[in-house]
Amino acid sequence: MVNPEIEKRKTFAIISHPDAGKTTLTEKFLLFGGAINTAGAVKRNKANQSSTSDFMEIEKQRGISVATSVMGFEYNGKRINILDTPGHKDFAEDTYRTLSAVDSVILVVDCVKGVEEQTEKLMSVCRMRNTPVIIFVNKMDREGKDAFDLLDEIESKLNISLCPLSWPIGQGHTFKGVYSIYNNHLNLFEPDKKKISTPVIEVNSLDDENLAQFLPEKSLSTLKEELELVEGVYGAVDKEMYLEGLLAPVFFGSAINNFGIKELLDTFVNIAPSPKSREAEERTVLATEKNFSGFVFKIHANLDPNHRDRIAFLRICSGKFERNKFFYHTRNNKKIKFSNPMDFMANEKSIVEEAWPGDVVGLYDSGTFKIGDTLTEGEKLQFKGIPSFSPEIFKEVENRDPLKTKQLEKGLQQLTEEGVAQLFVMQPGNRKVIGAVGDLQFEVIAFRLEHEYGAKAHFRMLSYTRSNWVTSKDPKKLEEFLKRKQQHIGEDKDGNPVYLADNEFMINMTMRDYPDIEFHKTSEFK
Ligand code: GDP
């Protein structure tokens, strides 16, 4: 059963190590898609500013224009949804969650720096879910690594087979453009940072005489030699392998100069997957099913003090989402309807009447949603794929203003539900411990507690650096373990017990001492 509405949707994220060119590429896609008119229109959401106030200023801007979280536009008859991910490593969990809501990704690699730390981490998350990946090697206008060496590096460090679908002509100051292996034509571009440049020449064969006008003899013969080698080494693209996440097509270009972007986008809309199926705890849900289902993967606080509600981002997995229709909130066991669901077409938010699998709608929320919540038409479902990972820094919350205890509790609850960091409750005394990946998260929490909730908190560093979710087939043994290790046990947001440890050694010792207990590095262990 083919539903054209589903087939035309391509929902993906552009990911990269900070500074490789994710924002620039996003902007160029919007430019090609006609969603914006000039470069510079996409807000940079980069949080590499060192001070918290700078960071909060950016967050504030983002909070007000939440549209930048999802950018939808039409291109070649397809509906493209780009989901934005934060660049800063302290917000990696936010990125991982967003990756649970896409059907594929484009991974940007800087040709000068090659594969970087975040590139590897992001790739490992893609691999967990077999997400199809296209690689864009950016900044070819700079003197970077040799194309063949770079492919070797990507292949070995990211542990994925590659297949170049375009090939650069020269590099750095000799960079002339790209040859599209996929479409068999050559496009030479003039560097232009502001608008879409028109191709100087399009040919269908490297033997075309006109080429000599544009390419020096030497470049042309090098290109021919290299293409022969590419074909010999990498062969033709195997689309099935790409869709299974086993093979990544590679494109070369320069985002800032519009080099190679159109090839990338055109091929992307051709081969990238439309929404297919999603795993729920109970069963696999097909996109083509008649009944609606979807899950919340992100909650964004509205930092405008006049609008204290939040926006929950819902990814639609099956059926049709409709405005003002009652849907079933499976965790709360309640029916709710949405009178102002938001759509994010052309970088603007507007009220949406209906939406389809692959689409993301923004729902105004006054505290009903937690990340991971599922909505259906009545079936009890819980979508999988949004695990919590072990934080690396743990700090106990100390209340600095006893008159504002309620505000503090509420703030901590809401901020951790938004996924800013993880909250663990420890006994005795209901002590609250925040677990995070980076210090910036604590600064953001402190700042937001004060400015949005009027509460003052201080964080006291604890010695833990690992958390493991614990289960056992024998409930008695688990109970005994939890009692014995009480000072190391916290309860996560869903009430599951978590064992907090100072280091890997301590976990290994405990595992040895308690063979009946199972230890899990992520919260999703079923
Ligand atoms: P992000 O952190 O991955 O979003 O990276 P940005 O898109 O903000 O780009 C980081 C820097 O690299 C910016 O200064 C861009 O202008 C620059 N940049 C992006 N693409 C290119 C390119 O193709 N060539 C060159 N030389 N610089 C680029």
Strand and helix layout:
Elements: H1 4-7, E1 9-16, H2 22-32, H3 52-64, E2 70-75, E3 78-83, H4 92-99, E4 104-110, H5 117-128, E5 133-138, H6 147-158, E6 161-164, E7 166-169, E8 177-180, E9 185-188, H7 211-214, H8 217-234, H9 239-243, E10 247-252, H10 261-271, E11 277-279, E12 284-286, E13 293-301, E14 310-318, E15 321-322, E16 327-329, E17 334-336, E18 342-343, E19 350-351, E20 354-355, E21 360-365, E22 374-376, E23 393-399, H11 405-417, E24 422-426, E25 431-436, H12 439-453, E26 457-461, E27 466-471, H13 475-484, E28 489-491, E29 497-501, H14 504-513, E30 518-520
Parallel strand pairs: 1-3, 1-4, 4-5, 5-10, 6-10
Antiparallel strand pairs: 2-3, 7-8, 8-9, 11-12, 13-14, 13-22, 14-21, 15-20, 16-17, 16-22, 18-19, 23-25, 23-26, 24-25, 24-28, 27-29, 27-30, 28-29
Helix pairs in contact: 11-12
The structure holds guanosine-5'-diphosphate.
Briefly summarize what is shown:
The chain has 14 helices and 30 strands. Guanosine-5'-diphosphate is lined by residues 16, 18-24, 44, 46, 87, 138-139, 141-142, 254-257.
Cα Rg: 25 Å
Strand content: 25-35%
N/C terminus separation: 31 Å
Ligands bound, unique = guanosine-5'-diphosphate
What's the number of domains?
3
Multimeric status of the protein:
single chain
The helix content, as a percent range, equals: 25-40%
- How is the largest sheet built, in terms of strand order? 26-23-25-24-28-29-27-30
